[in-house]
């Protein structure tokens, strides 16, 4: 509705109107016709079979490599040839500082702990995390 208040710019700020227009303008088309070996296919079943064959050829089945075969095929460094990390010291103060700087509005990590909780309890959790991280570095084992 155009009123005297908005007669100069009648559609300004009318999000609902433009959402409606955008929705009506969308064409609902599926997969276009496909050509295989010089022949044009328009039927959905034919197109599905062509795409299925293409994906099967692009993605091979899992191959059974032994660990040694895989490493040698990729020329990966083994644990013996990798450089070592020396003299890493994890401090409670450093962890505390990192916890204080967490964004509480971010989503939880894979552990499911909210950054808001970690930030609020930074002084209580920093010493525990310091022990955990140091033990992990010393033993070379990441806890589950």
TrEMBL record:
<dbReference type="GO" id="GO:0031012">
    <property type="term" value="C:extracellular matrix"/>
</dbReference>
<dbReference type="GO" id="GO:0061343">
    <property type="term" value="P:cell adhesion involved in heart morphogenesis"/>
</dbReference>
<protein>
    <recommendedName>
        <fullName>Reverse transcriptase domain-containing protein</fullName>
    </recommendedName>
</protein>
<dbReference type="GO" id="GO:0007508">
    <property type="term" value="P:larval heart development"/>
</dbReference>
């Amino acid at each position: 509705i155009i009123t005297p208040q908005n007669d100069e710019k009648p559609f300004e700020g009318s999000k609902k109107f433009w959402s409606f227009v955008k929705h009506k303008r969308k064409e609902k088309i599926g997969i276009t016709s496909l050509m295989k070996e010089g022949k044009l296919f328009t039927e959905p079943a034919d197109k599905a079979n062509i795409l299925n064959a293409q994906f099967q050829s692009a993605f091979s089945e899992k191959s059974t490599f032994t660990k040694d075969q895989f490493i040698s095929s990729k020329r990966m460094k083994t644990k013996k040839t990798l450089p070592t990390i020396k003299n890493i010291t994890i401090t409670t103060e450093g962890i505390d500082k990192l916890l204080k700087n967490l964004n509480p509005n971010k989503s939880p990590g894979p552990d499911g702990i909210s950054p808001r909780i970690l930030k609020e309890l930074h002084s209580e959790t920093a010493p525990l995390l310091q022990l955990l991280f140091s033990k992990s570095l010393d033993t070379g084992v990441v806890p589950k």
